[in-house]
Amino acid sequence: MCCGSKRSAWRAASVQLVAQRPAAPVEKAPVSSVAGRRSFREVMLRYRESAPIRVWGPVTGLPYDFSAAEPVQAVEARDAAALARSEAFQPAEA
Fold first, then answer.
1. Residue range 45-61: average pLDDT?
2. Is residue 2 domain-resident?
3. Domain of residue 46, residue span
4. pTM (2 decimals)?
5. Total domain count for the chain?
């Protein structure tokens, strides 16, 4: 086997190892607001229940914490559209 063949075999093995390696886990920041991440428009959403709840945005994956003490939170518009379909949430009046 000449040097070129060894090099090709090594590259092929390296590609297989990279493909088999599990992806790095995506960490989600434990925040209740999207402050500092204003790549999209924010919508104020009101939680209509009293029990504390943490919901994960179905589009962004961001966590949002709601409670009777803090019923209104800023939510990215992409997540707010889906969350507002639930009876537990409604758009907050400005």
1. 94
2. no
3. 27-91
4. 0.56
5. 1
